[in-house]
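Entry: Response regulator
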Amino acid sequence: MNGAGGHDPVREIARSLSQVIAQALADGAPVATLHSARDLAQLLSLRGLDRLLAAVAPHAGDRWPAAMVPVLEQVRRAALECGREGNVEPLRRVDDELSLMAQAIERVWPTTPAGAAPDAPSAPRPAPAPRPPAPSAEVSPVSLATAMEGLPVARGSEETLRSVLLPPPAAGALRAALDWLLGEATPRPRPAFASDGSALEVTCEGVHYSGLHPAAEVLASVGGHLGPAGDRPNAWTVRVPVAAARETFLMLEQGELQLAVPWHAVSRVKLMPIEAIDALSGRKGLPVLEPITRAPRRAAELPVVVVALGLKRACLVADRLVWRMSAEPASLPGASPAQGIVRAVRSSDDELYWVLEPAWLLRGVTAPPLAEPPRRRPPPAAPPRVETPARPIAPAPAGPAPAGPPPPIPFPSRERAEARPEPVLPLEAAQVEPLAAPPAASAPTGSALPAVSEPPVVPTPRPLASPPPAPVPTVAPPSRAPARREVLVAEDSITARIFLARMLEQRGFAVHAVGTAAELRALLPHGPWALVCADSELPDARGSEYLTEIMRAAADTGSPMVALVRDGADERLARVAGVVATLRKPYEPAALARLLSRLVPDLPGTTRAPGHPPDPGEWGAR
């Protein structure tokens, strides 16, 4: 629905998607715009559009092949229709058709740049910088449904089986690992499959202990890992990479270094106090890795990333968490910051990151010992049987035959017990109801009047000691009008803005999203808002004075405010400005739920948790 000032988040998303696709499919458009369009398609679950953009990506940066133009023109028309209608339904309606077109493009056109095609322009183009080939470009991926053929799966996994593609080594390793974990029991447990477009997670219950080590070894050979699935007994989670045109990483910073960890190798991410990080090795058994570069720790809390490979896992401490994003291979800019760092990637915003390979990071880490499952005690052995020599039973000596029948046995006669007297209850005269005389006896003898029988006397109940007061009619208090369920979000990153808006919409809010402080100031007076979420740094405003201004404007309309922060420095800046509630990036559903339960306690489906600080050692979901 349209909010104050005419801002509609659905319309804004559709307009942004239409603009990004128009820029990405223009002749000679840079590859980065195509990757931005893919990020939006993945965020909106447009799998067919994402696959089509991935299929045409090798031909980007030049004029499109003539035979490919009609396909791209259909995508442009659907995107233009999205912008006019203000929603993504036009693209969603043709998403399956776009997936079929992507398959045709993958079969017909080779993955060479369009400059080598016959219809390429005659003018020579400057040669791009050499980059390592993408790992998934050398082999054809395998569908997850093909790899798991014949394996019973949990309900709700069918869509993941149809849509996910795996590199052939990962597909073979995953099937072998599941066979080790599930064993040959009948019926076999049904694993559950889920994917976020960058990695595949499989949750298995009732695994065989003897298959854990072999499964971990085969998973480690393809960069996957295996770990316990929360607090569920005998349940384990498998995580492997999926086939994608661009690899996804978790970007972070250590000192002046920008580092990237492959997303499929990330087990957990959490912000922790420094003193709790030092106790991780003793309490959780998680070794803390030495930093690539040392820098003074200025924040009280630091991001901790649990990196896993096979059964091995360790903690990587960062100074700042950037974001989860996809990137493409890049040439090394110079000397590597460490001996084991051999490749780099470049993000869509042209930032260079050094890649930390899990095998190199965990080279000195040993897998933790696994607690053996309880064994059943064998039943106690029966005492040994001792055989004794058999002895013949001597017959009993015969006695004289009885002379006659035995005399009868006299039984004592049982005398009849006397009847017990009935208990007599003491009653007063007032408590005894008089009996009415019979009709014949009540008429006088010789009277000409007919006999009249009086009705029986109905006893009057004894009154209570104090009669209850008469009910006083009460007037119900007027019902409180439902609070306004509209949230104002100011976030300059369109990906983060859409992600936060979708999480809020799933909890029943109508979201009005803007990207600048000027738009935020224009919409604030239209409150009260259920929540005002303002980024601590926008393109046209930043700093504590800006946050103080927004907080006071929100307070004037009776709206609570939340500052969207990246790290401890931004959080301290918000505290200086007087903003108490903060939400850290990347946004996590669990953190948002806790924030809403505190600031919007009347929201249906949210409950206020008992008031105790969380244990820094409790690891939350990503």
